[in-house]
Write a structure and sequence with these properties.
Radius of gyration: 15 Å
Strand order of the largest sheet: 1-2-3-4-5-7-6
Helix content: 25-40%
Distance between the termini: 23 Å
Order of helices and strands: EHHHEEHEHEHEE
Low-confidence stretches: none
Shape: globular
Number of helices: 6
Number of strands: 7
Length: 155
């Protein structure tokens, strides 16, 4: 799997994915995500969007960001410096159950933790999203039960 930066031509496909399961179930209102993508060079320039490719075929999308830039309450108990979060999803239900989600999270985690200032990735998937929670554990994240988030520290 390869992650390439999201391009304008990818937006209709991401919109399609966001408007159907499995992403709609876990991502909520597609317009919230699409407005962030549309404003990725403006108000949401702190978000780094990617399309996941399997060979030449787009199979999902993901993003990462510094938690200090997003200022989400769930991550405020972590140090501002060096703390990142990610969002990810496979766009087609036919891709589920084949290890592609794990590969997507692995690729994204490697990218983030290779950033010079990155010390940790924190993720708070929906409590009912068992597939995502298992994927994070399989990718080396640890559940911080006190904070209710998954954490992966740089080695």
């Amino acid at each position: 799997m390869v992650l390439r930066p999201l391009e304008e031509g990818d937006v209709p496909l991401v919109a399609l994915w966001l408007n159907r399961d499995p992403l709609r179930k876990w991502f909520g209102d597609p317009e919230d995500w699409l407005s962030e993508i549309r404003e990725r060079e403006g108000r949401f320039s702190f978000l780094h969007h990617f399309v996941a490719l399997l060979g030449e075929d787009p199979v999902g999308f993901c993003q990462y960001y510094r938690c200090a830039d997003a200022d989400e309450e769930v991550y405020r108990s972590f140090p501002r410096e060096g703390t990142y979060s990610v969002d990810y999803g496979l766009g087609d239900a036919a891709c589920l159950g084949k290890g592609l989600g794990r590969e997507l999270v692995r690729c994204l985690s490697e990218r983030v933790l290779s950033l010079p200032d990155a010390r940790r990735i924190v993720v708070a998937p929906d409590r009912e999203n068992e597939a995502s929670r298992r994927t994070l554990l399989r990718c080396g994240f640890v559940l911080d039960e006190g904070r209710g988030v998954f954490v992966k520290e740089r080695d």
